[in-house]
Structures are given as structure tokens and as C-alpha cells.
Design goal:
With 567 residues, the chain is an alpha/beta fold. It has 17 helices and 18 strands. It has helices at residues 20-32, 46-52, 69-80, 112-151, 155-169, 198-203, 218-221, 237-242, 276-343, 349-380, 393-400, 425-441, 474-477, 490-494, 501-511, 536-539, 545-548, and strands at 12-16, 36-40, 57-61, 85-90, 103-106, 172-181, 186-194, 205-207, 224-226, 248-255, 258-268, 389-392, 410-413, 420-423, 449-456, 460-466, 515-521, 525-533. It has a 6-stranded antiparallel β-sheet with strand order 8-7-6-11-10-9. Strands 2-1-3-4-5 form a 5-stranded parallel β-sheet, sandwiched between helices. A 5-stranded mixed β-sheet has the order 13-15-16-18-17. Bound molecules: adenosine-5'-diphosphate. Adenosine-5'-diphosphate (ADP) is lined by residues 434, 438-439, 442, 467, 469-470, 472, 480, 485-487, 492, 497-503, 526.
Length: 567
């Protein structure tokens, strides 16, 4: 008998035939064509026997006796559904073939070529059905993934879901999401992973500089598939050894040209290799992950912005309260003294003069308060402009520092022949007035205050205002240069103030390209210092919108305004 070669896909064929010899003939024919064949012995347990060997195709003889062919076909359909093809072989009479049979073939006389063609067609149909099923389940998986992301309740749920779902869809034993940490310049494993302990997830790190240069570069090389991880020189050997990785697939999570992170699955169940098709699925999952990771980031940003807005709102109300109070107090004083002068006709002239002086000084105070409020508005709306001029520092300090604020003496320490600088003298005067009047306000009367200036290197000068007053507790230094910040101590709060002066001073100094800071010891006194570039026109950079905003209070040790800056 001439056996034609298989013309289509090969598969596992089970034969159920009442005649063992005939079954052997058929088996030989199919085996020669390359198929795997199992012969099932007819009888009461025949259906179970066929189901156990999970064939792709079953050849059932039409003339089976016990159980009859129709019962066997029904049993197979019930157990295996559409995942098996059934071909009935009939002798002379094709009547009585059940409807759920996939095809029939005349067995007497048998046409080998025809049988081959039918078997191949049925197996091809089955393969196509399986591909379709896989695609459907992948699509369903992707859909489920994006659906679940939108419901995800925070980072933990999201990363846990992403790693588990990706691993399950790709039949991998492990999965993890890595995100780019721009400060450390590394991709960092996000807990919880799947099939990894929290400690293992912590150790999943990939530095983008250094070693990674000689290894796989996700920006240049794209996704990665490795079925022999232990021997793969593209991977980080320590990490692979530490986690005992066998096989690995990694797809970048990207937004435009930016790599936000990586989606990694490892160790195929049963040590089977990952295929290119698997990598495509991982890429599709990473695409979904991009949306989710972005959503989470935006969600977090909105939450933060919301918290900030609430804080602004609180500060605004507090500010309005303070301003209203600060306006009311001098207004009451002005009104009171004006009334007295008006009503008390026989006031001695000195008292009258003193009252009028108080009216003038309270009016000045009001004007100052109004100016500060206006200036803050200008700064916050980006309308603050600088008028840089050449300033001769020595004479300027002598003229700008307010000396007659109280009975505190102000000592000037300015070396002769000091260089000229480029700065906005009006704004600088404002900073000096604020620092010196603070030194006076927060010192006991009679305590002396020192203003000194020095060169730092060739490009900067440093001006310091030193007092021996209340000082500032270290834990409150960090936020002192922020809007509305006031030291929360009984003694400090006895002195009236708005907490705006240092905020304005910081912005002005930074507007000159300089820095401002404070060193202080409670009970001993404070030194407020600022460094200014010799030429602010060159060093100055425009304030970024974010810098105009409040920064959240930072701990004193980390604050650029706490302690003397280096260099
Ligand atoms: P104001 O003095 O109007 O409250 P500032 O912004 O100038 O506002 O100062 C903020 C806070 O810093 C003050 O309220 C005060 O608590 C503290 N402070 C400023 N200068 C000194 C100083 N020289 N000594 C002690 N505390 C100071």
C-alpha cells in the first residue's frame, strides 16, 4: 500500500474500532504519515480511555457494537467538547451517523489518500480553533487587566495585579513591575511581585548607568527574551543567580520615548521556553500597564495637588485672619489717637505731638503691610521684575541698613575697598530691612546687632545679620523661609508679625541667583546670612512656576536654608 505523506499538521489520533486488526492497519497508515496514534479497546470504559489520552482526533468505527458508535460519540463530545475532532468510519451504510460528528469516511474499501486529506483538514481546523481560542483568552485577559486597572485601589493593588496577571497569562512562575527612579537612576522592583518574596522584590534593581551600559539597554535594545538566563551575558549575573532565574522576558513600559518602567515575567511553568509570540503578548500587557501606571501617577498627583490646595486654602484663611488682625490693630490705634487729639482740646503740645507721631508710625506700619501683601501677589503671579544696577556695597549697606529702629545698636562690619556688585538695590534694601528689623524685634532691647559683609571666592559676597536674641528651635528652622511661617513659641508670638518677610527675602535673594540661610541657637541668638553673586545678571535665573509655589516643609537638616551652604 502506498502511504501518502502528511499534507497538514500532525496530531494525536485515537482509534476506536471493533476489529483489532483493522485498527492496527489504520494506525500503521497514520503513524507512517507522522501522526501519534493510540488504539482504544472498545468496551464500557472506552470513552474514559480515550479521554485520558487526550487526543486531537478520534476515528470511530460506525459498526461498533457495545457500546454503539452513537453512544461513544456522545460521551466523547460531553467530555471533550469542541476540543476534539471526531471522524466516523463507515462500511457500506452511512445512515445513523450522529450530527455532532465532524466528518465521515468510507472505510470499505479504504482510500488512504482520502483518509489523510480528511485527517489533515480536521487537525488544521482544530489548530485554527485553538489559535482563535488563545487569542480570545488573551484579549479577554487584556480587557480584564485594563478593566481591573481602572478600579485599582492604589499602588499595591496595581503592581500586585499587574505582576500576577502577566505571570498567569504567560504561564510564568514569577512576575514583577519595575519603575524608573529618576533620583537614583535605577529601575526598582515594586512590591508586591508575584512568586517573589518582598525581600526578593526589593533586590530587583537595575541601574541605568554603570554596569547596565555593557548589559541589556532597554532604550536601545527594546524588549528582552532569554530562555537560558543563567548563561545569558546580557543580564545582570548577580541578580539572575540570586533569584535562580531560568527563563525571562522583559518588556519596557513606555510613554513616548520615555521608559517609565519594565514588566518582567520569569520561569515558564514546567521549564518550557518562552516564544516570540509570548513576548508579543507581554508587550501588549506592558502597553496596558503604561495606561495603568500613568493613571496611578496622575491620580497621585491630583491627590497631592488637592492636599496642597486644601493647605493653601487653610493658609489663605489664616493669612486673611492675620492680615485683618494686623490691619485692625494699627487702624484702631490711629482712630483712637486721632479722636483723642480731636476731642481733648487742652492736651499739652508734647502729648499731642507724641499722639500724632504714633498715628504716623502706625500708618507707616499699615503701608508696609499693604506693600508686603501686594508684593506677595506680584511674586505669585510672576510679575516681579528686577532693576539691576551697579551697587557699591560698602556705602550701600551704610545707607540701606535701618539704624534707628530702636535702642538696639547696629554695628556695621564692612571691610574697606569692597567690590561693586550688580543687584537690584531697592529689593536688597527690602531684604536687609527685614533681616535687621527681625533681629531687633526678636532681641531684648539694648542688645547689639551686627551686619557684616565678606567676599566668598571671586564670584560671591556674603552678608550676615547677627543677633543675640531669642534664637530659633532647630525643628522649626526648616520651614522658616516659607510663606506665613512663624516660630510657634510663646515669646516669638508675643511679637506681632505676618510670617511673610523671610519668604519675600528668600524669593528676592533667589531672584538674584543667591541663597539665604540661618544658623541659630535657642536663647543665644541667630545669624541670618545670604550669599549673592557678584553679577546677578549672569547668575540669576528666572523663578520657575513651581518655585514660586510653596514647597512642603522639609526637615531642618535637609533644608537649603538651614545652616550655612557649602562652597
Ligand atoms: P514676621 O517677623 O513678620 O513674623 P518673617 O518672615 O520676617 O515674619 O519671620 C518669620 C518668623 O521667623 C518670625 O515670625 C519669627 O518667629 C522668626 N524669626 C525671624 N527672624 C528672627 C530672629 N532674628 N530671631 C528669632 N526669630 C526670628
Amino acid at each position: 500500500m502506498i502511504t501518502p505523506a502528511a499534507t497538514g499538521p500532525l496530531g494525536h489520533v485515537a482509534i476506536v474500532h471493533e476489529d483489532p486488526e483493522r485498527a492496527e492497519d489504520l494506525a500503521r497508515l497514520l503513524r507512517t504519515a507522522g501522526h501519534r496514534v493510540t488504539i482504544a479497546v472498545p468496551g464500557r470504559r472506552v470513552v474514559q480511555g480515550v479521554v485520558d489520552c487526550s487526543p486531537d482526533l478520534v476515528l470511530v468505527s460506525h459498526s461498533l457494537g457495545d457500546p454503539p458508535m452513537a453512544t461513544v460519540v456522545k460521551g466523547l463530545r460531553q467530555a471533550l467538547g469542541g476540543d476534539v475532532r471526531i471522524l466516523v468510519l463507515y462500511g457500506f451504510d452511512p445512515q445513523g451517523v450522529p450530527g455532532d460528528v465532524d466528518d465521515v469516511e468510507r472505510a470499505e474499501p479504504l482510500q488512504p489518500t482520502e483518509l489523510q486529506i480528511r485527517v489533515s483538514r480536521l487537525l488544521r481546523e482544530l489548530a485554527e480553533r485553538r489559535v482563535l481560542q488563545k487569542k480570545t483568552s488573551e484579549l479577554l485577559g487584556l480587557y480584564k487587566m485594563s478593566w481591573a486597572f481602572s478600579l485599582a485601589g492604589g499602588a499595591d493593588v496595581l503592581y500586585g495585579h499587574l505582576s500576577r496577571h502577566s505571570a498567569e497569562m504567560l504561564k510564568a512562575e514569577r512576575g514583577v513591575v519595575l519603575l524608573y527612579d529618576s533620583e537614583r537612576r535605577q529601575l526598582v522592583g515594586q512590591p508586591p511581585g508575584f512568586g517573589l518574596t518582598p525581600e526578593e522584590v526589593q533586590r530587583v534593581r537595575y541601574k541605568v548607568d554603570g554596569e547596565a551600559d555593557s548589559r541589556w539597554n532597554f532604550r536601545k535594545n527594546g524588549p528582552l527574551l532569554s530562555n537560558k538566563a543563567q548563561a545569558d551575558t546580557r543580564l545582570l549575573p548577580d541578580l539572575v543567580a540570586d533569584l535562580k532565574l531560568q527563563s525571562l522576558m522583559i518588556a519596557p513600559i513606555t510613554r513616548g520615548p520615555k521608559i517609565l518602567g519594565l514588566l518582567a515575567v520569569a520561569d515558564r511553568t514546567g521549564r518550557a521556553p518562552f516564544s516570540d509570540e509570548d513576548l508579543n503578548l507581554l508587550l501588549a500587557l506592558a502597553g496596558q500597564a503604561t495606561i495603568a501606571v500613568e493613571n496611578l501617577r496622575l491620580h497621585d498627583e491630583i491627590k497631592k495637588a488637592n492636599a496642597l490646595l486644601q493647605e493653601y486654602d487653610r493658609l489663605k484663611s489664616e493669612f486673611v485672619g492675620i492680615v485683618a488682625h494686623d490691619f485692625r490693630r494699627p487702624l484702631m490705634a490711629i482712630r483712637g489717637f486721632a479722636e483723642l487729639v480731636l476731642e481733648e482740646q487742652d492736651l499739652p503740645p508734647e502729648t499731642r505731638q507724641e499722639f500724632m507721631r504714633t498715628v504716623i508710625s502706625e500708618t507707616d506700619h499699615l503701608a508696609l503691610l499693604a506693600n508686603d501683601t501686594l508684593l506677595i501677589t506680584q511674586i505669585e503671579t510672576g510679575q516681579l521684575s528686577y532693576n539691576f544696577r551697579e551697587v557699591d556695597v560698602g556705602p550701600f549697606l551704610l545707607e540701606a541698613v535701618p539704624l534707628g529702629l530702636s535702642d538696639n545698636s547696629v554695628l556695621m562690619d564692612v571691610p574697606p575697598g569692597f567690590p561693586r556688585i550688580w543687584a537690584d538695590p531697592d529689593r536688597l534694601r527690602q531684604v536687609l530691612t527685614n533681616l535687621v528689623s527681625n533681629a531687633v524685634k526678636y532681641s531684648a532691647s539694648g542688645e547689639s546687632i551686627v551686619v557684616r559683609v565678606r567676599e566668598r571666592g571671586t564670584q560671591h559676597i556674603v552678608i550676615e545679620v547677627v543677633d543675640h536674641g531669642l534664637g530659633i528651635p532647630p525643628e522649626q528652622i526648616g520651614k522658616l523661609f516659607q510663606k506665613f511661617a512663624r516660630v510657634r513659641s510663646e515669646n516669638h508670638l508675643k511679637v506681632s508679625g505676618t510670617g511673610l518677610g523671610l519668604y519675600i527675602s528668600r524669593l528676592i535673594v533667589e531672584g538674584h541667583g543667591g541663597q539665604i540661610w540661618v544658623e541659630s541657637e535657642p536663647g543665644k541668638g541667630s545669624t541670618f546670612g545670604m550669599s549673592l553673586p557678584i553679577d546677578a545678571r549672569l547668575a540669576r535665573r528666572p523663578l520657575l512656576p513651581a518655585e514660586k509655589d510653596e514647597k512642603p516643609p522639609s526637615p531642618a537638616a535637609d533644608s537649603p536654608t538651614a545652616g550655612r551652604p557649602q562652597g
